[in-house]
Automatic annotation (TrEMBL):
Keywords: Membrane, Transmembrane, Transmembrane helix
Protein's UniProt name: Lycopene cyclase family protein
Gene3D superfamilies tied to this protein: FAD/NAD(P)-binding domain
Top-level taxon of origin: Bacteria
Naturally occurring in which organism (per UniProt): Aquirufa avitistagni
Length: 396
């Protein structure tokens, strides 16, 4: 039994970011029994520190806090070909983190069984059949489970073989109306002058305000000033905006791992369960995580509710995982520029099919159709390299 002096909770959520708060939200809405839930984070989440985007063809849980949505997307190729697609019945939706934090915390704080504490997590340990979170504010015991969304995902920032999506974004307000808020620019590869997969991502929310993110899918990070210089050059080249023509409202940056999780598979027998980025919830080939995380956590809570203890926490079909591995290997090898792959996909397939593919909602036959629309040689070479690496060669 835990010490009488040690605070005890049914569930402890180590990390109060998007994954942790989402899980608390779904637990609070469910019939999963709990006496108390503790959410631990170093700081209260109340700032606009992130932008989350997702696409869907149906209503989703947090649509109430969507800042803006688009039914049309631009795709710009390196050779200056520009295509604007309707993605109906899908819409592409944007959420600002401060609005989401306020919305979800308002509901959670109405339940006295859910408590928050601001402190640093130091680690996890076991005491008999119970688990503990060690923090700078003391130790806390979970009688059921700890959900960990703060542990590092296995991705080495300095290792060029470990792909990352890395970006810096500026939200600007122009001095005059110049943007079209009806269409987002998902990929602009007109700036892709390096072997890495490099593009600009543009989300206009009014005729004067837009978010510009200079993004790489690559293993090597850049100095912050590099991204900022690229954004400034893009604003001038694409829109004719000099620095006197706009005001920078906000800045954001991020590094998202694009490697497949090397962690052991988890099920609901596990006492410390990794979720969010820590649990490999991010789509490795795109960096998208918001809607994917919501779906995985809803499933997790449903399995808790139905006592399906053998259910996997992060279930991905083997063929989908293999396809991700091959694509990531293509980006690592750089035998073909990353923009060429995306250009082939978007020029030869309906955008709705691509969006379903990126959300792993396609059939195997649809996957094979998409595979035949990309340059085959670099993908065959990458698949062969992976097959060779997986062979059980005897150790010397």
């Amino acid at each position: 039994m835990p010490s009488h002096h040690q605070p005890t909770y049914t569930y402890i959520l180590a990390g109060g970011g998007m994954a942790g708060l989402s899980l608390a939200f779904y637990l609070n809405q469910s019939s999963v029994p709990f006496d108390s839930i503790l959410i631990i984070d170093q700081a209260e989440k109340n700032t606009r520190d992130k932008t989350w985007c997702y696409w869907s063809d149906q209503p989703e849980t947090f649509d109430a806090v969507v800042e803006h949505s688009w039914n049309q997307l631009w795709f710009h190729s390196f050779d200056n070909r520009s295509d604007k697609f309707s993605i109906l019945p899908f819409s592409y939706r944007k959420i600002q983190s401060d609005s989401w934090y306020a919305y979800i915390q308002k509901e959670l704080k109405q339940n006295p069984k859910i408590q928050f504490i601001q402190t640093k997590v130091l680690g996890f340990s076991y005491e008999g059949r119970y688990t503990q979170v060690r923090t700078e504010a003391g130790d806390f015991t979970a009688t059921e489970k700890i959900f960990d969304s703060i542990s590092a995902f296995p991705c080495e920032l300095a290792n060029p073989q470990h792909l990352k999506q890395h970006f810096v974004g500026l939200t600007i307000e122009a001095n005059f109306p110049i943007f079209d808020p009806a269409a987002a620019h998902l990929f602009d590869f007109r700036i892709a002058h390096t072997p890495a997969c490099e593009f600009m991502y543009v989300l206009p929310t009014s005729d004067r305000i837009a978010l510009f993110e200079h993004t790489y899918f690559s293993g090597q990070l850049k100095e912050k000033q590099h991204y900022l210089d690229q954004i400034k050059a893009y604003l001038f080249g694409a829109y004719g905006l000099s620095e006197d023509d706009y005001l920078v409202l906000e800045e954001e940056s991020g590094i998202i791992p694009m490697t497949l999780s090397e962690a052991e598979p988890q099920n609901l027998h596990t006492k410390v369960i990794q979720i969010g980025t820590s649990g490999g919830f991010v789509k490795s080939t795109t960096g998208y995580s918001f809607l994917r995380t919501q779906r995985k956590l809803k499933e997790l809570v449903a399995n808790l509710q139905n006592q399906h203890w053998d259910a996997p926490v992060n279930d991905t079909k083997p063929f989908k995982k293999w396809m991700d591995r091959v694509f990531l290997q293509v980006l690592v090898d750089q035998k073909i520029k990353g923009n060429k792959v995306f250009e082939s996909l978007f020029q030869k397939n309906r955008p709705q099919l691509i969006l379903r593919f990126l959300e792993e909602q396609t059939t195997m036959w649809e996957d094979l159709k998409l595979m035949t629309s990309v340059p085959t040689l670099p993908f065959m070479q990458a698949a062969f390299k992976i097959a060779l690496a997986d062979l059980p060669f005897p150790k010397k």
